[in-house]
DNA sequence: CTTTTGCGTTAGCCTTTGCTTACGGTAAGT
DNA sequence: ACTTACCGTAAGCAAAGGCTAACGCAAAAG
């Protein structure tokens, strides 16, 4: 589906660090900013990009907002990579087959 | 492994178009540049990025250079995404479990 | 009601990056 | 040997992207 935005979002190292921090479960913005080498507004901007890409979901809990990983976009990425993987292996096998035929005059 | 460079390389739309064109098999630079909306030197620069990321292999055949998809970097990307997928599902299940417990006073 | 906490948003700066133009270098064709 | 393909690289430029500082706003705390 929209794997293009997901892969662009995961290209930034800071955004990958944010996603890695959410692997254990949902976290508010302040807890995410602590430990990251950037300011809290920067984290907020990254969270917007990740949420727009479908990688994250935000649930307002009173004063704060809990961000969690959404499996949907990850599934789209895996589908794209699986197709790329299959085609790469097929092209690799075809090339090896051609090379083997060149040894027989 | 080196999945970080691979995901950064695939973030660019032109580079994804190049990889898609190589799904059927290896191609020289000129054939890749034809059909793409950028010039040949731009394609050459993208090929360098993709090759440095481990996504492509270059084999000189006489005057030209054949570029083909290398399955190795794709495997590293799939490993990363599989781990992310597992953690996302586990966190999702844990959150659902917590929510269910809040209905029992 | 006032203060504090927790976030999102904007403006502006600065670095990164993708593109083109121009050039150099090697292999094939004549 | 001379020309013609085919390709990589360097310089230079315009666009994109990430960061900080400053502001505004809603919910909790007092």
Commentary on this structure:
The structure is a homodimer of 105-residue chains. With 105 residues, chain A is an alpha+beta fold. Chain A has helices at 3-9, 13-21, 29-33, 40-52, 71-101; strands at 27-28, 56-61, 64-69. Chain A has a three-stranded antiparallel sheet. In chain A, 28% of the residues are buried. Chain A binds chain B through residues 4, 7-8, 10-11, 13, 16, 19, 22-26, 68-71, 74-75, 77-78, 81-82, 84-85, 87-89, 91-92, 94-95, and chain B through 4, 7-8, 10-11, 13, 16, 19, 22-26, 68-71, 74-75, 77-78, 81-82, 84-85, 87-89, 91-92, 94-95.
What distance separates the N and C termini of chain A?
A: 47 Å
Structural class of chain A: alpha+beta
Radius of gyration of chain A: 20 Å
Q: Biggest β-sheet of chain A: count, sense, barrel?
A: 3 strands, antiparallel
Structure annotation, total helices of chain A? 5
- Major protein interface: A-B, 32 and 32 residues
How is this structure best summarized?
The structure is a homodimer of 105-residue chains. Helix content of chain A is 62%, strand content 13%. By secondary structure, chain A is α+β, with helices and mostly antiparallel strands.
């Amino acid at each position: 589906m929209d794997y293009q935005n997901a892969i662009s979002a995961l290209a930034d190292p800071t955004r990958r660090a944010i996603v890695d921090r959410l692997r254990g479960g949902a976290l508010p913005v302040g807890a995410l900013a602590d430990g990251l080498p950037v300011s809290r507004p920067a984290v907020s901007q990254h969270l917007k990009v990740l949420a727009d890409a479908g990688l994250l979901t935000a649930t307002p809990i009173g004063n704060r907002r809990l961000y969690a990983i959404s499996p949907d976009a990850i599934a789209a990425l895996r589908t794209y990579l699986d197709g790329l993987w299959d085609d790469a292996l097929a092209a690799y096998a075809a090339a090896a087959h051609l090379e083997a035929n060149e040894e027989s005059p």
